[in-house]
Amino acid sequence: MKTPEKSDEGPSGRIKPILKWAGGKSGLMSQLTPLFPKTYRKYFEPFIGGGAVFFSLDFSGLSFINDLNTELIDLYETVRDEPQKLMTALDALSKQYCEDFYYQLRSTKPDTRVDRAARTIFLNKTGFNGLYRQNSKGEFNVPFGKRIQCPALYDRDNFLRASSLLQRATLSSIDFEELINQAGAGDFVYCDPPYEPLSRTSSFNAYHGSGFSHDDQRRLKDACIRAQQRGAFVVISNSAADFIKELYSDCQLTYIAARRAINSKGSSRGAIDEVAVLLAPIDNSLRTTSVPPC
To answer: Which residues, 6+ apart, have CB-to-CB distance to 100 below 8 Å?
Structure first.
């Protein structure tokens, strides 16, 4: 059984996400990591998003990362296979930075994989508040961020470390249930699905045009329980919405103090509760806590 490799540099030496991401877990790792298993054979993440947990773990074994958003998976495949060409393309885009160019690029669909990946990163880093959001047609629709200068689009050393880690991962863009069904005894599954909105005006699950329904949330729970029954250790993050607390009322919930990382008003970026659902396998050697199985 393989264990996650940790950088000798400590938390500051973690690989950082390539994209800015609403609901990203970079600032929550100190609360999440103690909930994770100490050892595991394979790592599965069916909703990779910004990849904060995947990059933070820097796992030495085989990982399976997935997202229904094909633009994200194309990006990670490009970082894995052609990091130098991607950085060169980003350098070229940064020299053209201005509001008109932002909207011009946003309206295009580049032909090559490198140019598409560069477009994704550029729009993410220069758009309003670092949002990644699609409309119902799957089109990126975030407005320009209006910064005076182009922000840094990448960190070279971090980019290359991320590329190296992705070499050990199998990437896919399939339904989450199909990926979770592949997890078995001794594996670790971390799920960070589109969050259940806390209110009608919330946009937790707006990062992808297709949304995420109550039936999807129920189907996720069922798939994770089946994985647990096969011997996998599963952790699921979500909002502390009433529907989620009721759905997982028969499971062990841990509350996580999060912070609104992206909000139009600075005064609204306060602490909110998220939940982490722990589905521990029967094998005690795979647990980090005394959490009973769901």
So the answer is: none
Backbone φ/ψ region at 256: left (φ over 0), alpha (ψ -120 to 50), beta: beta
pLDDT of 202: 55
Residues of the chain with CATH 1.10.1020.10: 75-157
Alpha-carbon separation of residue 60 from 14, 51, 198, 239, 287 (angstroms)? 14, 16, 36, 30, 19
The pairing of strands 42-45 and 62-66 is parallel
- Res. 285: pLDDT tops 60: no
Q: What per-residue confidence (pLDDT) applies to 273?
A: 84
User: What CA–CA distance (Å, rounded) separates 87 from 91?
Assistant: 6
Residue 234, beta-bridge partner list? 189, 279
What's the token pair of residue 109? 């669909």
| CATH match of 75-157 with 1.10.1020.10 | yes
pLDDT tens-place string over residues 245-283: 999 999 999 999 986 544 444 444 456 789 999 999 976
pLDDT at 141: 87
The 10 Å Cβ neighbour count of residue 129 is 13
Residue ranges, CATH 3.40.50.150, the chain: 11-69+168-286
Q: How far apart are CA 285 and CA 233, in angstroms?
A: 11
Distance CA 198, CA 21 (A): 18
* pTM, 2 dp: 0.86
